[in-house]
Amino acid sequence: MTGKRVLLIVGGGIAAYKALELTRLLRKAGVAVRPILTKAGAEFVTALSLSALAEDKVYGELFSLTDEAEMGHIELSRSADLVVVAPATADLIAKAAHGLAGDLASTTLLATDKPVLMAPAMNVRMWLHPATRRNIETLKTDGVLFVGPDEGAMACGEFGPGRLVEPPVIFEAIMDALRGPAARPLAGRHALVTAGPTFEPIDPVRGITNRSSGRQGYAIAGALARLGARVTLVSGPVALPTPLGVDRIDVETAREMLAACQAALPADVGVFVAAVADWRIDEVFGAKLKKEKGGPPALTFVENPDILAALAASGPQRPKLVIGFAAETNDVEAHARAKLARKGCDWIIANDVTEPGVMGGDENAVLLISRDKTERWTRAAKDSVARDLAQRIAQDLTASPS
Ligand SMILES: Cc1cc2nc3c(=O)[nH]c(=O)nc-3n(C[C@H](O)[C@H](O)[C@H](O)COP(=O)(O)O)c2cc1C
């Protein structure tokens, strides 16, 4: 990355101190950093700290005779390979979305001809406010890239989405953006991913579920997002954070999962990793079943809809590439190949769940089965399987027009 240049706009939020660490990481990687510190930003970190770490002058004023003489604001906006806003406050986001140009930072964002990456940071209510939601959508449509925000405890004492992602994550997003379109082969594509178990209720407090942790599906959703795809993750109940850049829809039952998947179409690729219950209770009891009522209850089951088969047969809306997962305990390849034919999907990723550490664990040993061949992948961490699969999906999709 030596020789690459970033124009770093630091907005006025508590998280501005993290821009100092980000500057250090970028300089260590050989990236030149030219900072713009807004008036509000200067309430949180000093120009001196930023300048010392960036090893460059810090810009702040639009109407500065010396700055304007040395480097005009238009030249400043074009002087980098990438413009990064971190933290991107609600105010900076709103100004950029509306094309306002009342100060140096917003004028630069309006005047630049370079890609812009924003790392938002604000109170959860500010982030969820319809005005901010609209502004983010506008900026995404304009081609602005985003990293984060994270979810968690905030400096203001509240909890939820709005925290600045950690500097190493912003750093990685900057590296991807600087590498250019080659690092985002799935830009402009929509990926639909399901993950986790389903939960089929018996009564208001009990239900039937399975041991799926959701880790493999979440890792795949994250890996597809890193390659630039817009990702919709339809998730059963799991205890996992939403991967960066992924839109997550929470569901419980198989029928809810199918409805959420159908509503998310059209998609270029569908990766169906969720362990969906084959059966549900015919009639869910309206009140909690009592032990005293004499003997165990007689539960009758009915078949759940087959999400993979339904999406593989969804006519003009069908994703170009439909990928199913098969958890098998014996004759893995034969069963998976039969499943490929039965469900009408394009690839089956089969795994032997009797292998220690696979179901609920961190590793996976998979076979990729397509209509004409079988590939045996070596056992690897679920993250690594996810990255390899995302690359294979990108190769397949980029070989056909979007
Ligand atoms: C203590 C304090 C913390 C703040 N933190 C944030 C924040 O994290 N995100 C945000 O959008 N605004 C935050 N604000 C409000 C902004 O500072 C204010 O909207 C400011 O005008 C933003 O200026 P900018 O456009 O230069 O970023 C905070 C204000 C105060 C007083």
Radius of gyration: 25 Å
Beta strand count: 21
Shape: elongated
Determine the CATH topology of the largest domain: Rossmann fold
Number of domains: 2
**Name of the top-level CATH class of the largest domain:** Alpha Beta
So, the CATH homologous superfamily of the largest domain? CoaB-like
Q: What is the arithmetic mean of pLDDT?
A: 92
How widely separated are the two ends?
30 Å
Biggest sheet: strands, sense, closure? 8 strands, mixed
User: Spans of 5+ residues with little confidence (pLDDT < 50)?
Assistant: none
- What is the chains' assembly state? single chain
What class do helices, strands and sheet pairing give? alpha/beta
Our estimate of the beta-strand percent is: 15-25%
Please state how the strands of the largest beta sheet are arranged side by side: 12-11-8-13-16-17-19-20
Ions, cofactors, ligands: which are bound? flavin mononucleotide
- Based on the structure given, which CATH architecture of the largest domain is correct? 3-Layer(aba) Sandwich
Helical fraction equals 25-40%
Number of helices: 14
Structural summary, described in words:
With 402 residues, this protein is of the alpha/beta class. The protein folds into two domains: 5-182, 3-Layer(aba) Sandwich (Rossmann fold); 190-398, CoaB-like (Rossmann fold, 3-Layer(aba) Sandwich), CATH 3.40.50.10300. Helix content is 34%, strand content 23%. It contains 14 helices and 21 strands. The protein has an eight-stranded mixed sheet, with helices on both faces. Strands 2-1-3-4-5 form a five-stranded parallel sheet, with helices on both faces. A two-stranded antiparallel ribbon has the order 6-7. Helix 10 (215-226) packs across helix 14 (382-398). The longest helix is centred in the C-terminal third of the chain and has 17 residues, at 382-398.
